[in-house]
Design a protein that fits this description.
3 domains, homodimer, mainly alpha, CBS-domain, 3-stranded mixed β-sheet, 437 residues, Tetracycline Repressor, domain 2, MgtE N-terminal fold
């Protein structure tokens, strides 16, 4: 690059896969990048840009370095869905100014996709798909394919439309290849074509694509007009994204995968949850405060608070994780929900009984007080049973009220179960005080 | 089905996508399934079987109902990777007996794949791929393609081998279609072909496929001989599987996605972790026991135990989740690890300071004791700082010793942080006792 040997450099650099080109690109200095913008065409730069993630490197830095009309041309050359992803990260005025510099057709395609709500099929679809008519024959279809292959995102499925541009069927390239040139498309097309609606949730689209092993799915409006396609590589990203979202929420971190730019931004993200949990913790503290008289008489009771509260938190987190996944996998009918709750109640009873017996024996051996052992043991039994059910019940209830159950994070459930466990433990201790003194 | 109208039924049923056929199949009664085995060919049954998951419905039930030679033919017709998946779930003697009933070629291909270790590229690859020689022309390649299309798992990448059967390049069907029949493969093939080794971890393969947006990747031995291919639909399953593994571990549930057959099997799976955590909790209890004298003098100290231990657990879980994901994403150099730790230390200091101040003020207002407020506030500050660092340090340490950091589940870190927080809190309380009395 530095030797300014343009041809040699272009040949070497462009030989790499666009993903590797992008990895190299982000390692360059600002000065080197500016040289690169001179050397490459907007189309070549577009391929690189498609392989950069906003989380790793803010797009704005790079866009600010480019000549605005070069950037606009680059957006026009990108697959529409990728261009939309980048433009969505910019502020509206900036995105609009790039759109105004673009050729009309590309700009209007991008503008349409910008309207769709986040996480819907519309927001991840692209418009570079191939359609043919059912009356054409295989030879004609192959000609269309050859002409459109350089621009289309996938050429492996070709969608068949009727006179009204409505989706009527699908042919795979596999079908075209094994048929003779004179066969009519209508004779080989599959009329049972699976499609998704623009407003469908991306998670549902991902699930369907995974179950059916499709490489692409057409996206239609409510009148069955084809608007775009979603390809499997986008779905891989969606699955990744949704999984890390669930993971983040279980741990009560807003977004585990965004590279934090430093401790301040990380602290800023985590503090809201921590402050909420802090006040829930204060509530627990004030509940124990009501049992101060009990505590002053039998100080040893305090020794087992973390054990009981901790076990309630652990079993609650387990039940929570199972319930959240079951909901994500689609077990959302009332019948299935009752089944989950019943099963968790059973599981809580069994684990509670066993842990309760273990604790009773251990405390008895350790302190030699059978009543203390029984108190702690029975508390563990009751706490585990209730906490297990609560761990499953809270996300199921949230789902019923259309709150994403994944926001019921592990720490939240743990804190709720702290409260439950403290009430059970001190309630029992106060009741059976005479045996402990 | 019941009307025994064979042709009508076959036509209706087979018109559906194999995934839907499988969904219907599992709803049938044993008697209906037995009729179905009569009506369908082993090849048709194979497509259905490829779409059934062991976790939902044990394969054995269905296999036991089939005539063994029908089952063997079905395995021979399945894609090798899918057949291997099913056979791996059976016991060895049973798998061997099916293999002995199969034709030699299919049996030997399956046997080879059965040898690869779980979670490696070898264990998920399939052998239905298409190779051509670099000296052939596009027309000849298309002929091969047409002949092999019905059996191959993907026809969208064709791998080019040299005389020794070594991988030399790749051509996509897209390249073939836009080239004239007389072009030599060697002129259009891409020599920069990406491949993975049989022993590579499936997670690495998935990451690479996602980054490069490939639809398939060839699998080679150490001499670059092509052994199989991995297609994107298998990778979608791998990503799903690995994500739910991380999720399960964060919650300390062995496997969140396996449908538990009842509360007993669920309890059996969760109890080992709960018992370990129970004894760790006992350790916490015995530590507090050492401060019984302090507790007897100032019973109100007990009130804040769950608050402090809980906050330590919460912040530790957040730091843990971030560290585990960073490791999973490949931030594993010593330098990056130190950076993660430093950042978490900074985050812990900031969140600790803010939560500490909030707690001090709240406790002061509530109890009117400034020393108690300061004690709890400073404990929260110290605990949060240490717990955040511990939450990141423990998984990083585990990774250093080649233990999967994901086993450091949320409940485990929470319990470790309970111990740390109790030591800090009671240590400080004992030291500054005179101000509290």
């Amino acid at each position: 690059l530095h030797e300014e040997n343009l041809h040699e450099f272009r040949r070497h650099y462009l030989e790499h896969h666009p993903y590797d080109q992008a990895r190299l690109f982000i390692l360059l200095s600002a000065k080197e990048r500016e040289m690169l913008y001179q050397y490459l065409s907007p189309g070549e730069m577009a391929e690189i840009f498609e392989n950069i993630e906003e989380e790793e490197h803010p797009y704005e830095t790079y866009l600010a370095e480019m000549n605005p009309s070069f950037a606009a041309d680059m957006f026009a050359e990108m697959y529409t869905d990728d261009a939309v992803d980048v433009l969505n990260e910019l502020d509206k005025a900036q995105a609009a100014s790039y759109l105004s510099l673009m050729n009309k057709k590309a700009a209007s395609e991008i503008r349409e996709l910008l309207h769709y709500e986040e996480s819907t099929a519309g927001s991840i679809m692209t418009t570079e798909f191939i359609t043919i008519s059912a009356q054409q024959n295989v030879g004609a279809a192959m000609e269309i394919l050859k002409a459109e292959a350089p621009d289309a995102e996938t050429i492996y499925y070709i969608y068949v439309t009727d006179g009204d541009k409505k989706l009527a069927g699908v042919v795979s390239l596999r079908d075209l290849i094994i048929s003779s040139d004179h066969t009519l498309i209508s004779d080989i097309m599959n009329e049972r074509v699976y499609s998704v609606s623009v407003a469908d949730d991306q998670e549902d689209v991902a699930r369907r694509m995974r179950d059916y092993n499709f490489l692409a799915l057409p996206v239609v409006d409510f009148q069955q007009h084809i608007l775009g396609i979603i390809t499997v590589d986008d779905i891989v990203d969606v699955i990744d994204e949704e999984a890390s979202e669930d993971y983040s929420r279980l741990a009560a971190v807003p977004d585990v995968d965004t590279a934090d730019r430093g401790p301040f931004s990380a602290a800023k993200k985590r503090l809201p949850w921590l402050i909420i949990l802090l006040f829930l913790g204060m509530l627990t503290a004030s509940l124990i405060g009501r049992f101060e008289a009990t505590l002053e008489q039998v100080a040893i009771l305090a020794v087992f608070i973390p054990l009981i509260a901790g076990m309630a938190g652990n079993t609650g987190t387990q039940a929570l994780a199972v319930a959240v996944r079951r909901i994500a996998l689609g077990d959302t009918t009332e019948e299935k929900k009752s089944k989950i709750l019943l099963k968790e109640a059973g599981t809580g009873l069994i684990t509670g009984t066993i842990c309760g017996i273990v604790v009773t024996i251990t405390v008895f051996i350790w302190h030699g007080q059978i009543f203390l052992g029984l108190l702690v043991g029975i508390s563990i039994f009751a706490t585990l049973t209730v906490a297990t059910v609560a761990g499953a019940f809270i996300p199921l209830l949230m789902h019923k009220f259309n709150i994403d159950p994944a926001v019921a994070s592990g720490p939240f459930i743990t804190t709720i179960n702290d409260i439950i466990s403290v009430l059970i433990y001190f309630g029992m201790a106060t009741m059976f005080m005479q045996y402990l003194l």
